[in-house]
Amino acid sequence: MKLQSPLGLVLAGGASHGAWQAGMIEGLVREGLIFDDVFGFSIGSLNGAGYCLQKLDILIDIWRNIEDSRILRFQPRLFPFSMYSNAALAEVVTHGGSEDEAMNSCRSRFTIVSTDKNDQRHCYARFTPQGKEGWDGPIARHMMASCAIPMVFPPVKIDVRGRTRHLVDGGVWVSENISFEAVAHCEDIIVLVMTHPEDLGRKAGFGYVKRREQRVREGLWDYMDSGVRTLANLPKKPRIFKVYPSSRLDYSLLAFKNKFCTPAVDQGIADASAFLKDPSEFLIKC
């Protein structure tokens, strides 16, 4: 089965499990795939930017040496409550360069999703090559907002079309379901989710953190399915491939450690080759 253009890429969140996703993108690019549209939220927005802004080599290096970035920097706040500073996120997104540099290097249409919990709606920021079809900057701030996990990182304030919004992680469930319509015109769409089927219904073990992470893993699977359904109702349905790791990512979502993330990158690269040998295994019947 050969993948058809225009080709879309949808990238789920998953915190430190994004190492696998980055490896998967690297592997697909090595095999010659070119994406016309990229759509991402949470860590998927950072990985998507790595591809769209032609910084994939830097992205992979960051994941292989993730401890150098010190992602979790303890700096608690009460209003609104959060445990860590988003300074590390601010440093990571600077690799995209200035706004003009990002615009000039952008090679595909790119949508970043964040969430405004105040009005229970998602914010879709759109970026296109050289800004010819729109540029909802600042792109760095939108990436930071999309990664702002509630209670972990503080919200990010952005002026959106003349209105100040306080945005958080694009993977947060709100009354408005997420929509993948930004990639609806693609012939084929690859959806990369870090949840493995073995995660579904798995016993979480003891402790709040383990139970919370189990809910997040299962929630991300369902969240992506809700987005896929927005494409299934179209008159002309794209082919959708929902791809997940070949084996469960057996480490914490907040374990930004080299000993976990480096092997996850390698697993993603290997999984990309395996996927392209038989994409039909991951084809969703809409």
Short précis:
Helix content is 35%, strand content 20%. The chain has 286 residues and is an alpha/beta fold.
* Low-pLDDT residue intervals, each spanning 5 or more residues: none
Largest sheet: 8 strands, mixed
Mean pLDDT rating: 93
Spell the H/E element sequence: EHEHHEEHHEEHEEEHEH
What is the CATH C-level name?
Alpha Beta
Output the structural class.
Answer: alpha/beta
The count of domains is 1
Radius of gyration: 17 Å
Quick one: overall form? Answer: globular
- Determine the strand fraction and express it as a percent band: 15-25%
What would you note in describing this structure?
The radius of gyration is 17 Å and the shape is globular. The protein has helices at 18-30, 43-52, 56-64, 87-93, 99-105, 139-146, 208-232, 258-277; strands spanning 7-11, 37-41, 73-78, 81-85, 109-116, 121-127, 156-160, 163-169, 188-192, 239-243. With 286 residues, the protein is of the alpha/beta class. The model has no long low-confidence stretch (mean pLDDT 93). It has one domain (7-284): Cytosolic phospholipase A2 catalytic domain (3-Layer(aba) Sandwich), CATH 3.40.1090. The strands form two sheets. Strands 1, 2, 5, 6, 7, 8, 9 and 10 form an eight-stranded mixed β-sheet that branches. Helices cover 35% and strands 20% of the residues.
Offer a few descriptive terms.
single chain, alpha/beta, eight-stranded mixed β-sheet, two-stranded antiparallel ribbon, Cytosolic phospholipase A2 catalytic domain, 286 residues
